[in-house]
Amino acid sequence: MTVLPRTAARTARERNVRAAWLIGLGIVLLILPRLIYPVLALDILAWGLFAVAFDLLFGFSGLLSFGHAAFWGTSAYVTAFLLGHGQSVPVAMLGGTGAALLIAVPVAFLSVRSVGIYFSMITLAFAQMLSFLALQWTDVTGGENGLQGFARPGFLGLDFSDSVTRYYFALAVFAVGFYIAYRTIRSPFGQALQAVRDNEQRAQSIGYNPNRFKFTAFLISATLAGLAGSLYTFGHGVVSLEVVNWRTSGEVVMMTLLGGTTTLFGPVIGAGLVLLLRDVLTTANLPVGIVTGLVFVLVVLFFRRGVVGTVQGWLRRR
Amino acid sequence: MNTQLLLIQVFNGLVNGAFYALLSLGLAVIFGMLRIVNFMHGALYMLGAFTAFALGQAFGLGFWPSLILAPLIVGLIGVVLERSLLSRLYGLEPSYNLLLTFGLTLLTQDLVKQVMLSQYAVSSAPYTPPAALSGVVNLGFVVFPKYRLFVIGLALVVCLITWLVIEKTRVGAIIRASTENPNVTRAFGIDVGKWVTGVFGVGVGLAGLAGVLAAPIYSVEPYMGAELIITTFAVVVIGGMGSILGSVVTGFAVGVLAAVGAALYPPIANTLVFILMAIVLLVRPSGLFGLPEGAR
């Protein structure tokens, strides 16, 4: 990473660019359910937050988790289970998110000691164990059938049987999650995290404990992924084994890369693009895997900075 | 549980272990030499099986010619992939290789599915073993299908040959030198790039071979490599990434352990390997046969 002197003008311009992204994204998200089906729009929020959570770890800490479905899936199941047992929507969501955090503590403890590809593999292994648990523990998870037909009782006068109401409630939750991620990155903790990512030895020599930073980042990331998973359950009203499958872990990587890592807005845009693309392909009855696989390959080969990264680079050069 | 049943499980475990060993051997060769985490290995295994099936459909080729031809074709596909795509990512973090090959996996699986559906109107096809290998053998203490014994035997021979070539021959010395110190090796007049491509081709050729061998047991379908590759990754990590010996020994051992575990408590079969992996990584982060990252 090249470090340029930070002039006041440059900082001000960066702030303007950020504000422009924020306003743009905000407007799009506010009118989204008027443009596409509200359920698909809510999917974009849930996956978008999931991708932001993933990027907190991948982009800002340099750790490629290939098992983030574990946290998304755990929360999705727990949320559905609590809703099925008569809990209100906020309680179910908090329960799901809390469960993701709880699971993340031992996983983070064991995995942040590994580096590079070993980290990817051990996170994958834990996700596979959870996927096995979801398949076997049929009393709680419904096994192959998954969970469905649970109620979504109204809250503060909101009627959640209406998909547009559901969307705007989800947008509020999404905003909270996004703000937490944003604050984390902009905080001294976030700066130190990036220092650890860029040069672990140097960060250590100035007194940081790299593993402690990675551990905390992992927990925040997993918790936000859990919040996203509970949104997904809330939006769909169905949970299947797919939420803990390794393809889900791969998909969130793809969304993040496509949108642009370390850009924060990028993952949301990436999630939107992938879901819209898939929607178009399924409606047109085209082979989804061939096209998404091709997009993935092209992004990794020629477009590693993603949509937002490329646009930002282009703006900066002007 | 009676001894008879246990022995049958051990043999079935060895068959699964043969596939784990062949696949993780290829992965280990590729990772050890090229530092590529080839997520596509499972899809290439599937391509091996599919190629054998397609050769049979198109040219009436039987099992034996396919056993030679299909791995060659898959190896050639590997060479093309390495030259055209993977080589563009050298020098970047290994994560990008993982991600690229993940994308290629999605692409290949659905491509083969489309071809199977449009050309043969099936999405899954049985593949028959050759007549010479059908039927069973009485080993005295257990009766076992001939074909499965053949798979175990062939996998052992191939693993042994690969190990001998890499550890004991001049070719192996050149390969090891090319990867450990490409610049010095180049100075000796050796074309490192060609060797790297060759190693990748042989590695994925091994996956193709495993695919042909698997076709008569599991039948041919586009997603046959999808779950297998995840287990194989676990095997590679347990054995120590890049360790040839580790991948072979662990491959067979995991196969047997999972099969015996499954006989005692059926639901655990698919997860035992991941539990094992978590334990091994806790005790020895670089795997059973692996050297610590810094020691390479």
Automatic annotation (TrEMBL), chain A:
Membrane topology per record: Multi-pass membrane protein
Cited InterPro entries: ABC_transp_permease, LivM-like
A Pfam family that the UniProt record links to this protein: BPD_transp_2
Keywords recorded for this protein, A-Z: Cell membrane, Membrane, Transmembrane, Transmembrane helix
CDD domains in alphabetical order: TM_PBP1_LivM_like
Major subcellular site: membrane
Intracellular or extracellular location(s): Cell membrane
Residue runs in coiled coils: none
Membrane spanning stretches: 20-37, 44-71, 91-110, 117-137, 165-182, 215-234, 254-277, 284-303
Protein name from the UniProt record: Branched-chain amino acid ABC transporter permease
Organism for this UniProt entry: Deinococcus aetherius
Lineage, top ranks: Bacteria, Thermotogati, Deinococcota, Deinococci, Deinococcales
Automatic annotation (TrEMBL), chain B:
Segments crossing the lipid bilayer: 6-31, 67-86, 147-166, 195-217, 271-291
CDD domains: TM_PBP1_LivH_like
Keyword Transmembrane helix tagged: yes
Major location (coarse): membrane
Keyword annotations: Amino-acid transport, Cell membrane, Membrane, Transmembrane, Transmembrane helix, Transport
Topology of the protein relative to the lipid bilayer: Multi-pass membrane protein
Subcellular location(s) of the protein: Cell membrane
Family label: Belongs to the binding-protein-dependent transport system permease family. LivHM subfamily.
Stated name of the protein: Branched-chain amino acid ABC transporter permease
Species the sequence originates in: Deinococcus aetherius
